[in-house]
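Homework help board

Subject: predicted structure for assignment chain

Our instructor gave us this sequence and asked us to write out the predicted structure in token form, then describe one feature. I got the tokens but I'm not sure how to describe them. Can anyone check?
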Amino acid sequence: MDEVEVVVAHSERATLRVGDVFLKVDADQARIGVEVDAMALAPVPTPEVLWRRPPVLAIAAVPGTALGRLGEPSTASPAAWAAAGAAIRKLHDAPLPPWPGGAGRDLAELRADLDSECERLVTNGSLPAGLVIRNREVAEAALRPWTPVFTHGDLQITHVFVEGDEVTGIIDWSEAGQGDALLDLAILTLGHEEHLGDVVAGYGTDVDLDVIRAWWSLRSLLVVRWLGEHGFDPFAPGCEVDVLRSRM
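My token output:
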């Protein structure tokens, strides 16, 4: 019998692996619904949905290995990173999904959430005020109007699988929706700035690198407290707090 591996678990959801099957347990069925619908619409390799019995979704493992891991050097080739960029461009060129969701948040709401989070980080002593203020200044460049595209919404490096120089699967689509294309590029390269050029080369069009860097700061500021409260360590080498420090 295959062992049960806990891939990730916190108060909102949990993912287990049993052999070549992943079991995603989520009390929010709307989030699971978005994931299933997004995988059906996305013009890139996605996991096969095996069955769905609320609150569980079973999907097949995708071949290959993750592009890398936050806080660790990536062993993937520059060509593999470029292939990831090309896959993202294909997604962004696809017709918009019929729901907003994902990263398509109202700018005023996003700015208010960011300012509130920055205040909490300083007030509770999580981060030095100077670090928060500097990154809040950098983050402002991301708070501009954008043309919505079909975005993954949570395109972490561990969510893109490659085999050689080819993308074999993109997983975890629960945050997909209509959003900012540069946020997807920013999340993928967070903590791996050395591969930004490879991703942009594969993406195949001019992008505003300052906006991508702004999203690095914005994303990190928004998740530091949440990560700590859910058992993750944003202070680990190469992770979110180091990303914020790199902007100083």
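Reply (TA_rk): Your tokens look well-formed. For the description, you could write something like this. Residues 64-245 form a domain with the Aminoglycoside 3'-phosphotransferase; Chain: A, domain 2 fold (CATH 3.90.1200.10). That's the kind of observation they're looking for.
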